[in-house]
Target: NADPH quinone oxidoreductase
Amino acid sequence: MHAWRGHAFGPPEILVWEEVDDPPLAEGEVRIEVAAAAINFPDVLFTAGAHQVKPTPPFIPGFEVAGVVVESREPSLPPGARVAATLPGSGGYATRAIAGPRTTYALPDAMPFEDAAAMTITYQTGYFALHRRAGVQPGDTVLVHAGAGGVGSAAIQLAKAAGATVIATAGGEEKTAVCRALGADVAIDYRREDFVAVVKERTSGRGADIVFDPVGGDVFDQSTKCVAFEGRIVVIGFASGRIPAARANHLLVKNYSVVGLYWGTYSRARPDLTRRAQDALYALYGQGAIKPLVSAAPPMAEAKAAMKAVASRATTGKIVLTNRR
Model:
Protein backbone atom coordinates (compact mmCIF):
# COMPACT_ATOMS: atom_id res chain seq x y z
CA MET A 1 0.00 0.00 0.00
CA HIS A 2 0.95 3.66 -0.24
CA ALA A 3 0.26 6.35 2.32
CA TRP A 4 1.00 9.92 3.33
CA ARG A 5 3.22 9.58 6.40
CA GLY A 6 4.64 12.06 8.86
CA HIS A 7 8.05 11.23 10.31
CA ALA A 8 7.87 14.26 12.61
CA PHE A 9 5.19 16.73 13.67
CA GLY A 10 4.60 19.89 11.71
CA PRO A 11 2.52 21.50 8.93
CA PRO A 12 1.11 19.41 6.06
CA GLU A 13 4.33 19.90 4.09
CA ILE A 14 6.11 17.36 6.32
CA LEU A 15 4.01 14.48 4.94
CA VAL A 16 5.70 12.07 2.52
CA TRP A 17 3.95 9.74 0.04
CA GLU A 18 5.65 6.39 0.41
CA GLU A 19 5.21 2.64 0.21
CA VAL A 20 4.21 0.96 3.47
CA ASP A 21 3.79 -2.70 4.33
CA ASP A 22 0.22 -3.86 4.83
CA PRO A 23 -0.04 -4.62 8.56
CA PRO A 24 -1.71 -7.90 9.57
CA LEU A 25 -5.37 -7.94 10.58
CA ALA A 26 -6.43 -8.66 14.13
CA GLU A 27 -9.57 -10.63 14.94
CA GLY A 28 -12.65 -8.64 13.89
CA GLU A 29 -10.76 -6.16 11.69
CA VAL A 30 -11.20 -5.45 8.00
CA ARG A 31 -8.86 -4.07 5.37
CA ILE A 32 -10.49 -1.39 3.24
CA GLU A 33 -9.40 -0.30 -0.21
CA VAL A 34 -9.86 3.42 0.35
CA ALA A 35 -11.95 5.13 -2.31
CA ALA A 36 -12.43 8.37 -0.36
CA ALA A 37 -10.96 9.93 2.78
CA ALA A 38 -12.46 13.08 4.29
CA ILE A 39 -10.25 15.89 5.55
CA ASN A 40 -11.20 17.26 8.96
CA PHE A 41 -9.57 20.15 10.79
CA PRO A 42 -8.43 17.69 13.52
CA ASP A 43 -6.27 16.01 10.83
CA VAL A 44 -4.24 19.23 10.67
CA LEU A 45 -3.89 19.24 14.47
CA PHE A 46 -2.99 15.54 14.42
CA THR A 47 -0.19 16.15 11.91
CA ALA A 48 1.09 19.08 13.99
CA GLY A 49 1.11 17.00 17.18
CA ALA A 50 -1.55 19.26 18.71
CA HIS A 51 -4.49 16.85 18.73
CA GLN A 52 -5.90 15.02 21.78
CA VAL A 53 -4.64 11.84 20.11
CA LYS A 54 -0.88 12.25 19.74
CA PRO A 55 0.67 9.52 17.60
CA THR A 56 4.19 8.19 17.61
CA PRO A 57 5.89 8.98 14.27
CA PRO A 58 5.77 7.73 11.62
CA PHE A 59 2.01 8.22 11.41
CA ILE A 60 -0.69 8.43 8.74
CA PRO A 61 -3.39 11.14 9.13
CA GLY A 62 -7.04 10.61 8.32
CA PHE A 63 -9.85 9.50 10.64
CA GLU A 64 -12.70 9.04 8.14
CA VAL A 65 -12.80 6.78 5.04
CA ALA A 66 -15.09 4.93 2.67
CA GLY A 67 -14.32 2.14 0.28
CA VAL A 68 -14.50 -1.62 -0.33
CA VAL A 69 -13.48 -4.40 2.05
CA VAL A 70 -10.67 -6.42 0.43
CA GLU A 71 -9.76 -8.63 3.40
CA SER A 72 -11.81 -9.47 6.46
CA ARG A 73 -11.64 -11.18 9.83
CA GLU A 74 -15.20 -10.09 10.60
CA PRO A 75 -17.99 -12.31 9.20
CA SER A 76 -20.53 -9.48 9.04
CA LEU A 77 -18.23 -7.46 6.74
CA PRO A 78 -17.10 -9.81 3.95
CA PRO A 79 -14.76 -8.91 1.09
CA GLY A 80 -16.59 -6.82 -1.48
CA ALA A 81 -18.72 -4.98 1.09
CA ARG A 82 -19.05 -1.23 0.52
CA VAL A 83 -18.36 0.49 3.84
CA ALA A 84 -17.57 3.71 5.65
CA ALA A 85 -15.40 3.71 8.76
CA THR A 86 -13.90 5.92 11.41
CA LEU A 87 -10.34 5.02 12.32
CA PRO A 88 -9.45 5.41 16.01
CA GLY A 89 -5.75 5.34 15.24
CA SER A 90 -6.07 7.39 12.05
CA GLY A 91 -4.58 6.03 8.81
CA GLY A 92 -7.03 7.22 6.15
CA TYR A 93 -4.69 9.13 3.83
CA ALA A 94 -3.64 5.94 2.09
CA THR A 95 -4.64 3.40 -0.53
CA ARG A 96 -5.70 0.96 2.18
CA ALA A 97 -6.77 1.29 5.80
CA ILE A 98 -7.66 -1.03 8.68
CA ALA A 99 -10.87 -0.59 10.67
CA GLY A 100 -12.61 -2.40 13.49
CA PRO A 101 -16.19 -3.74 13.42
CA ARG A 102 -17.53 -1.31 16.01
CA THR A 103 -16.92 1.74 13.81
CA THR A 104 -17.36 0.28 10.32
CA TYR A 105 -20.74 0.75 8.64
CA ALA A 106 -22.21 -1.02 5.62
CA LEU A 107 -23.28 1.61 3.09
CA PRO A 108 -26.65 2.11 1.44
CA ASP A 109 -26.39 0.88 -2.14
CA ALA A 110 -26.92 4.28 -3.79
CA MET A 111 -24.53 6.29 -1.60
CA PRO A 112 -21.38 7.55 -3.39
CA PHE A 113 -18.10 7.01 -1.56
CA GLU A 114 -17.47 10.77 -1.39
CA ASP A 115 -20.72 11.30 0.51
CA ALA A 116 -20.07 8.29 2.71
CA ALA A 117 -16.61 9.49 3.76
CA ALA A 118 -18.04 12.89 4.70
CA MET A 119 -20.97 11.57 6.70
CA THR A 120 -19.59 9.93 9.82
CA ILE A 121 -17.63 12.18 12.20
CA THR A 122 -19.20 15.57 11.46
CA TYR A 123 -22.74 14.24 11.12
CA GLN A 124 -22.50 12.07 14.22
CA THR A 125 -21.14 15.13 16.04
CA GLY A 126 -24.12 17.19 14.93
CA TYR A 127 -26.57 14.41 15.73
CA PHE A 128 -25.27 13.84 19.27
CA ALA A 129 -25.02 17.58 19.93
CA LEU A 130 -28.57 18.34 18.86
CA HIS A 131 -30.45 15.21 19.88
CA ARG A 132 -28.58 13.72 22.84
CA ARG A 133 -26.97 16.75 24.49
CA ALA A 134 -29.42 19.54 23.63
CA GLY A 135 -32.69 17.63 23.19
CA VAL A 136 -33.77 19.50 20.08
CA GLN A 137 -37.53 19.68 19.54
CA PRO A 138 -39.69 20.81 16.60
CA GLY A 139 -40.15 24.56 16.83
CA ASP A 140 -36.86 25.25 18.62
CA THR A 141 -34.61 28.01 17.35
CA VAL A 142 -31.08 26.74 16.78
CA LEU A 143 -28.14 29.11 16.32
CA VAL A 144 -25.36 27.39 14.36
CA HIS A 145 -21.96 29.07 14.31
CA ALA A 146 -19.52 28.49 11.42
CA GLY A 147 -22.48 27.22 9.43
CA ALA A 148 -20.58 26.84 6.14
CA GLY A 149 -17.92 24.57 7.63
CA GLY A 150 -17.92 20.79 7.80
CA VAL A 151 -19.59 20.34 11.19
CA GLY A 152 -21.70 23.50 10.88
CA SER A 153 -23.15 22.48 7.52
CA ALA A 154 -24.12 19.14 9.01
CA ALA A 155 -25.74 20.85 12.02
CA ILE A 156 -27.86 23.12 9.81
CA GLN A 157 -29.28 20.16 7.91
CA LEU A 158 -29.85 18.06 11.03
CA ALA A 159 -31.57 20.90 12.89
CA LYS A 160 -33.89 21.52 9.93
CA ALA A 161 -34.63 17.79 9.69
CA ALA A 162 -35.63 17.92 13.38
CA GLY A 163 -38.15 20.67 12.68
CA ALA A 164 -36.15 23.58 14.11
CA THR A 165 -35.78 27.14 12.86
CA VAL A 166 -32.11 27.67 12.04
CA ILE A 167 -30.10 30.87 12.33
CA ALA A 168 -26.55 30.41 11.02
CA THR A 169 -23.45 32.58 11.18
CA ALA A 170 -20.60 32.61 8.66
CA GLY A 171 -17.95 34.98 7.35
CA GLY A 172 -18.72 36.68 4.04
CA GLU A 173 -21.48 36.68 1.46
CA GLU A 174 -20.34 33.46 -0.24
CA LYS A 175 -20.50 31.50 3.00
CA THR A 176 -23.82 32.95 4.13
CA ALA A 177 -25.24 31.97 0.73
CA VAL A 178 -24.02 28.42 1.41
CA CYS A 179 -25.86 28.44 4.75
CA ARG A 180 -29.09 29.50 3.09
CA ALA A 181 -28.70 26.83 0.42
CA LEU A 182 -28.30 24.23 3.18
CA GLY A 183 -31.63 25.31 4.65
CA ALA A 184 -30.84 28.04 7.19
CA ASP A 185 -33.82 30.32 7.71
CA VAL A 186 -31.51 33.24 8.53
CA ALA A 187 -27.82 33.57 7.61
CA ILE A 188 -25.74 36.24 9.37
CA ASP A 189 -22.45 37.58 8.06
CA TYR A 190 -20.67 38.04 11.39
CA ARG A 191 -18.13 40.35 9.73
CA ARG A 192 -20.87 42.90 9.02
CA GLU A 193 -23.64 42.18 11.52
CA ASP A 194 -23.97 41.68 15.26
CA PHE A 195 -25.41 38.18 15.52
CA VAL A 196 -26.65 38.83 19.06
CA ALA A 197 -28.89 41.65 17.85
CA VAL A 198 -30.16 39.64 14.87
CA VAL A 199 -30.99 36.59 17.02
CA LYS A 200 -32.90 38.73 19.52
CA GLU A 201 -34.76 40.50 16.74
CA ARG A 202 -35.70 37.27 14.96
CA THR A 203 -36.90 35.63 18.21
CA SER A 204 -38.77 38.67 19.55
CA GLY A 205 -36.19 39.02 22.31
CA ARG A 206 -36.40 35.42 23.56
CA GLY A 207 -33.09 34.17 22.13
CA ALA A 208 -31.94 30.83 20.72
CA ASP A 209 -33.06 27.62 22.42
CA ILE A 210 -29.87 25.87 21.29
CA VAL A 211 -26.49 27.33 20.36
CA PHE A 212 -24.18 25.02 18.39
CA ASP A 213 -20.67 26.39 18.93
CA PRO A 214 -17.55 24.91 17.31
CA VAL A 215 -15.75 28.29 17.52
CA GLY A 216 -15.40 29.25 21.19
CA GLY A 217 -13.62 32.44 22.21
CA ASP A 218 -15.56 35.66 21.64
CA VAL A 219 -18.30 33.74 19.82
CA PHE A 220 -19.09 31.77 22.98
CA ASP A 221 -19.00 34.92 25.10
CA GLN A 222 -21.44 36.70 22.79
CA SER A 223 -23.69 33.63 22.54
CA THR A 224 -24.40 33.83 26.28
CA LYS A 225 -26.11 37.15 25.54
CA CYS A 226 -28.63 35.63 23.11
CA VAL A 227 -29.33 32.18 24.51
CA ALA A 228 -32.94 31.75 25.62
CA PHE A 229 -34.26 31.10 29.12
CA GLU A 230 -33.50 27.40 29.79
CA GLY A 231 -31.53 27.30 26.55
CA ARG A 232 -28.52 25.11 25.88
CA ILE A 233 -25.10 26.10 24.53
CA VAL A 234 -23.34 23.04 23.13
CA VAL A 235 -19.56 23.38 23.09
CA ILE A 236 -18.17 21.51 20.06
CA GLY A 237 -14.66 22.95 19.79
CA PHE A 238 -12.44 26.00 19.79
CA ALA A 239 -11.65 26.89 16.18
CA SER A 240 -11.03 30.48 17.29
CA GLY A 241 -8.02 29.31 19.28
CA ARG A 242 -9.31 30.56 22.64
CA ILE A 243 -11.02 28.34 25.19
CA PRO A 244 -13.68 30.48 26.88
CA ALA A 245 -14.78 30.32 30.52
CA ALA A 246 -18.45 30.03 31.44
CA ARG A 247 -19.57 32.49 34.12
CA ALA A 248 -21.42 30.43 36.71
CA ASN A 249 -23.32 33.43 38.06
CA HIS A 250 -24.64 34.20 34.57
CA LEU A 251 -25.82 30.60 34.13
CA LEU A 252 -27.58 30.86 37.46
CA VAL A 253 -29.39 34.13 36.79
CA LYS A 254 -30.36 33.37 33.20
CA ASN A 255 -31.15 29.66 33.74
CA TYR A 256 -29.31 28.21 30.73
CA SER A 257 -26.98 25.24 30.38
CA VAL A 258 -23.54 24.80 28.87
CA VAL A 259 -22.85 21.23 27.77
CA GLY A 260 -19.93 19.64 25.98
CA LEU A 261 -19.86 17.30 23.02
CA TYR A 262 -16.66 15.49 22.03
CA TRP A 263 -17.36 12.86 19.39
CA GLY A 264 -14.23 10.85 20.18
CA THR A 265 -15.50 9.88 23.63
CA TYR A 266 -18.68 8.38 22.16
CA SER A 267 -16.69 6.57 19.48
CA ARG A 268 -14.46 4.92 22.07
CA ALA A 269 -16.82 4.40 25.00
CA ARG A 270 -20.27 4.02 23.40
CA PRO A 271 -19.99 2.51 19.90
CA ASP A 272 -23.54 1.25 20.36
CA LEU A 273 -24.70 4.88 20.31
CA THR A 274 -22.55 5.84 17.32
CA ARG A 275 -24.04 2.91 15.37
CA ARG A 276 -27.58 3.98 16.24
CA ALA A 277 -26.72 7.52 15.21
CA GLN A 278 -25.27 6.34 11.90
CA ASP A 279 -28.38 4.24 11.19
CA ALA A 280 -30.51 7.34 11.81
CA LEU A 281 -28.26 9.42 9.55
CA TYR A 282 -28.46 6.90 6.71
CA ALA A 283 -32.26 6.93 7.06
CA LEU A 284 -32.31 10.74 6.81
CA TYR A 285 -29.98 10.58 3.80
CA GLY A 286 -32.32 8.09 2.12
CA GLN A 287 -35.24 10.45 2.71
CA GLY A 288 -33.31 13.32 1.10
CA ALA A 289 -33.31 15.29 4.38
CA ILE A 290 -29.51 15.53 4.59
CA LYS A 291 -26.63 15.39 2.12
CA PRO A 292 -22.98 16.21 2.86
CA LEU A 293 -21.66 19.40 1.32
CA VAL A 294 -18.57 18.08 -0.49
CA SER A 295 -17.00 21.22 -1.90
CA ALA A 296 -14.07 19.45 -3.58
CA ALA A 297 -12.88 15.90 -4.21
CA PRO A 298 -9.23 16.16 -5.29
CA PRO A 299 -7.04 13.09 -5.82
CA MET A 300 -5.09 11.70 -2.88
CA ALA A 301 -1.92 13.13 -4.45
CA GLU A 302 -3.15 16.63 -3.53
CA ALA A 303 -3.58 15.87 0.17
CA LYS A 304 -1.09 18.45 1.43
CA ALA A 305 -2.60 21.33 -0.55
CA ALA A 306 -6.10 20.29 0.51
CA MET A 307 -5.07 20.16 4.18
CA LYS A 308 -3.61 23.65 3.92
CA ALA A 309 -6.89 24.91 2.44
CA VAL A 310 -8.84 23.40 5.35
CA ALA A 311 -6.37 24.85 7.86
CA SER A 312 -6.89 28.32 6.36
CA ARG A 313 -10.64 28.02 6.99
CA ALA A 314 -11.24 29.30 3.48
CA THR A 315 -13.20 26.18 2.46
CA THR A 316 -16.88 25.34 2.77
CA GLY A 317 -18.31 21.97 3.75
CA LYS A 318 -15.89 19.07 3.42
CA ILE A 319 -12.95 18.30 1.13
CA VAL A 320 -12.71 14.60 0.36
CA LEU A 321 -9.56 12.98 -1.03
CA THR A 322 -10.17 10.30 -3.64
CA ASN A 323 -8.33 7.25 -4.90
CA ARG A 324 -9.83 6.86 -8.37
CA ARG A 325 -11.05 3.33 -9.04
Remarks:
- The radius of gyration is 20 Å.
- The longest helix spans residues 271-286.
